[in-house]
Amino acid sequence: MSPFKGQTGLKRILNASGYSLDGLRAAFTGEAAFRQLVLLNVVLVPLTFFLNVSRVEQALLIAVCLLALIVELLNSAVEAAIDRISLELHPLSKNAKDMGSAAQFVALSMIALVWAVILL
After folding, report:
1. Domains of the chain (ranges, CATH numbers)
2. Binding residues for a divalent metal cation
3. pTM of the full structure
4. Closest Cα to residue 44, out of 23, 74, 67?
């Protein structure tokens, strides 16, 4: 058992929820890309309720939008960890940040592809 682990049971869940809200708040206030994706989700997710698609298709349209938010949170976390370690330019740091960016590119491409396949 790790000495860095916190509480268990309900206390752990409450603590984890607080940390999650702190993370969302930090991403929204500190990451322009996250705010842009939130705006995209504010537009696209409600739009699905007005489209003539099945419930499964609607779920897929929403899921890919939310997936892009998840990927952006992970990308921002990687960038923050890399910057915390060192602001020095290093090939491994560049690779890590570029791979996070590539993951976000794939997630955004998935939005475009899934929406196109379902709507066209």
Report:
1. 32-119 (1.10.287.3610)
2. 31, 79
3. 0.88
4. 67
